[in-house]
Amino acid sequence: MPDERIPGKLIGAIVAVGSLAFIGILTETVMTVLFPQLMREFNVDTATVQWITTIYLLVVAATMPLSSYLNRRFKHRTLFLAAVALAVLGSLIMIVGHAFPVILIARVIQGMGSGVATPLMINIILEQSPKSKVGRLMGVGSLVITVAPAIGPTVGGAVSSILPWRAIFVIVIPIILLVSLPVGLKCVEQHRPTEEARLNSLQFVSIVLALCGLVMFLNQAGVAVSAAVSGGSATVSAVFAVVSLIVGLGALLFFGWSSKRSFSSLIRLGWLRDPMVLLHLIAYMLLPIVGIGFGYVITNVAQLSLGTSAFLSGALVLPGALIGAFFAPVGGMLYDRFGPVRPILGAFFAAICGPILLLVFSMRLTPVTLAGFYFIFGFGYSLGFSNIMTNALRNIAPQFMPDGNAVFNTCLQFGGAAGTALFSTILSVAQAGAGEEGGATFRHATAVGGSWTFATMIGIVAIAICCLIAAFRIGAKRNSRL
Prior knowledge:
By secondary structure, the chain is an all-alpha fold. 81% of the residues lie in helices and 0% in strands.
């Protein structure tokens, strides 16, 4: 039928807007593989350097709650141009910045750009896609974003072996201005009227405080434990961790409370009363802890335990992430054809085999087995992940889809930030008191930290699978009553 055809301009809009998120994630994963080099250049430790990734993900997560308001208040093209400007400005600062705080400021700006671009792409898909093609187009959107982690570590390792790492940002600016910008100006269209929505600044501040407090808790708790293990003073970090947890949880509770009583809430949350949707959301937040955190773990275990170069450690991520990324649209097509249960659960039962094998062989890994076992996880993860949000948003009223999109994307980015903070903490604790980097003791300690990390990953994925099974059971009971 003619109304079921996918318009060419829709594909162009997905590519143009998604490429901005792609570049943000690309530079994030590029920086991850360069952590050992950046630690030496800026004279910082593992727990500190990971903020280059964590602060980016945290800012993206803090920007996402605005997406429902921005989608209602501004035209798609206006938001697209704002994302372009932020991406270019952040890259320019990365090029000229030579102090660690300046680098963090640049990552904040880039995170704001990605925080606008990613939900904009998904809103365009949900609003403009033919109903029978939503799954595969969500898969295409996932492809645009997930290819970045696939090639990021390899790009970072390759560029750093022949050029200064700042050359990466010199390269991405022309791509934004010569590819993303013209395609977006031609293809991004407005299919729904804007509204006179109001920004609830108090709720926005509360959700930012909640996200920052919870991630700071993870980070400072890790610093405190690491200091205690190595015989140092952990008092300040422990107090800061407790305060951050109290602030984070308090702000989150206030946000939920005020949203119920606000005439114009930042994000409408009534749809979360549906337990099936809520269980999907929990799984969608838990899985990126592993999915995004894996890039950090693989590259750092490879360099600090197996002694590989930055280039080789980045290349180890490539096969699993790239194959998995290109299977994201396949997962969407399977969803459109078979429904949610088999494509999603089958994918994650396959994915969990990756960290299980990594745990079993953790103390005798080689670069080949490290890449191979990650390949298994990456394939299953990308095959099923985007379908979780697709299925959840199909079960809420259309007028609340921008709100659902905002919440799901916020949880995605928060999960990624929490994963990087969590896994860097585990490795730091294992490395505490193990001597200088490169020594046999340090390498063994990193391998032990890797085994702890893989065990943690298994638990997280298992909890997510249980949430999805419970959600599908609720859905099956509802369908049997119809």
